[in-house]
Design a protein that fits this description.
The chain has no helices and 11 strands. The protein is mostly beta strands. Helices cover 0% and strands 53% of the residues.
Length: 115
């Protein structure tokens, strides 16, 4: 069972920046998608951004222009640069890797945007 390890969460003031990183515990081959989702208290988990092998990216409308996803598929790592953070970005952020019918999840990292 593959494991995903996230790092980079924390507390930041509104308007600040954070960078999240995620690394898979094993190598994957072929076509797959890595990405980030988030879940705020009492809300459903939602997509933040994904990147596929080949480079195609997808962003939630609420983060477009503020967040940038990047991936290194030779190392099975994915990062999320988050700028201009807002209080409504506060959530647990989960790394994901989807290959075929399987989806792997990280344990999550807390991001809190507050003054």
């Amino acid at each position: 069972q593959a494991q995903l390890a996230e790092s980079g969460g924390g507390l930041v003031q509104p308007g600040g920046s954070l960078r999240l990183s995620c690394r898979a515990s094993q190598r994957f081959f072929g076509t797959y998608v890595m990405g980030w989702y988030r879940q705020a208290p009492e809300k459903q988990r939602e997509l933040v951004a994904t990147i596929a092998t080949g480079g195609r990216t997808n962003y939630a409308g609420s983060v477009k222009g503020r967040f940038t996803i990047s991936g290194d598929f030779d190392k099975d790592t994915v990062s999320l640069q988050m700028n201009s953070l807002k209080p409504e970005d506060t959530a647990v952020y989960y790394c994901s890797l989807r290959i075929g019918a399987q989806t792997f999840w990280g344990q999550g990292t807390q991001v809190t945007v507050s003054s």
